[in-house]
């Protein structure tokens, strides 16, 4: 759980001439960037989104609490759409997907600067490192890859492994009883072509195979589908 600043001593909180913001400044606490106020959260039934201030108790009651970048980032990753997804587009349901792109990038960088290693979609890390021009460019890669695999039987789309994690695709025929993990395709900012194939894994680890992009994946899909644990 992210650490929250403990309740201040009376000398900090009981001075009637200071409002909450002035008290925080006097205590040397940086004010919030305001990004949290723009992060919509899912309501209890998932039908509507509330902004963070609406979801918080009253500011007066908790004026001594200061938003932390790690906490705000965790809230930003919370999904508000359906619990299942059949395509990358269906899985884009959190604030990192529909919030203003620069706000998303700024909050991610604040979480990084706070010393955290926050989970984040591959495309956001790629934009942060200057490898992708925009979030939409990452979506284009995901959608093109999914379109190729959707045409071939046996490939299953897996929306996420956890909040902020990237989607991936598994080839179920490669799980023939000898494999501990089936052949899997992931997207990663650690490779210029972004597309990585993880061959079916047995007891002996097999290194990932980097591809130059979706076009090479299309050309080699029959070969990739033939890979089995030796």
TrEMBL record:
Residues 25-36 have a biased composition (Low complexity). Residues 1-17 have a biased composition (Basic and acidic residues). Residues 1-20, 25-48 are annotated as: Disordered. This is Uncharacterized protein. The lineage of its organism: Bacteria, Bacillati, Actinomycetota, Actinomycetes, Pseudonocardiales.
